């Protein structure tokens, strides 16, 4: 299970959690013309089926709007039947996505792979950017220790700002009122010096 806190260095997994859905957002380099959406979808589905033995039903949708490609992978626990991809199997959609991203970036983990070579009707699909959005079945736990320390830090900053603001207001009011008192005293002194009629 993923942790939301970066301070957890134990690297232990208390519970395996399936990741679904996964949205892969790709942007291809400018081509002479836009690809045919149905040809592009067929090629990407073939790629997932042949390269990573991923059942076609897990590729929920492929959307194409020049130059952006969105691939949605969906694999719920309720969809699992005998012979399907299991969490311990290497072809889980999260694993497929991980290896796919590495291949797109040209950082393949397998020897002999230089990157992803996809051709749509003979024209190469050159990808320049990839973003992957993951959603787990169960939300990752939030450790309250870090949340509490962050909340305390915010409260301390607010209190210090309030005290500083009040202090500045009090000092400026004293200076203003001190000047007025001196002026009033001078006026009273001048009135006493003048002869009365």
UniProtKB/TrEMBL annotation:
Looking at the UniProt entry, the stretches that span the membrane are 150-172
| Recorded GO CC terms | extracellular space; membrane; nucleus
Coiled-coil annotation reads none
Q: Which organism is it from?
A: Monodon monoceros (Narwhal)
Keyword tags: Membrane, Transmembrane, Transmembrane helix
Please give the name of this protein.
Answer: EPCAM/Trop-2 C-terminal domain-containing protein
Enumerate the spans annotated as EPCAM/Trop-2 C-terminal domain.
Answer: 19-136
- Family matches, as InterPro entries: EPCAM-Trop-2_C, EPCAM/Trop-2
PANTHER family associated with the record: TUMOR-ASSOCIATED CALCIUM SIGNAL TRANSDUCER, TUMOR-ASSOCIATED CALCIUM SIGNAL TRANSDUCER 2
GO biological process, any: positive regulation of stem cell differentiation
């Amino acid at each position: 299970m993923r942790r939301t806190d970066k301070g957890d260095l134990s690297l232990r997994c208390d519970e395996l959690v399936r990741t679904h859905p996964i949205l892969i957002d790709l942007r291809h380099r400018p081509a002479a013309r836009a690809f045919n959406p149905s040809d592009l979808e067929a090629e990407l589905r073939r790629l997932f089926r042949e390269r990573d033995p991923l059942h076609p039903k897990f590729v929920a949708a492929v959307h194409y709007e020049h130059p952006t490609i969105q691939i949605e992978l969906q694999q719920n626990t309720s969809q699992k039947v005998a012979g399907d991809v299991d969490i311990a199997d290497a072809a889980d959609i999260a694993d497929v996505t991980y290896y796919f991203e590495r291949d797109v970036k040209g950082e393949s983990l397998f020897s002999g792979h230089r990157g992803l070579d996809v051709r749509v009707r003979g024209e190469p699909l050159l990808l320049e950017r990839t973003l992957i959005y993951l959603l787990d079945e169960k939300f990752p736990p939030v450790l309250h220790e870090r949340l509490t320390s962050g909340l305390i830090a915010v409260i301390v900053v607010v209190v210090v700002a309030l005290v500083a603001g009040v202090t500045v207001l009090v000092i400026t009011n004293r200076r203003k009122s001190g000047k007025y008192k001196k002026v009033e005293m001078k006026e009273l002194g001048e009135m006493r010096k003048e002869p009365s009629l």
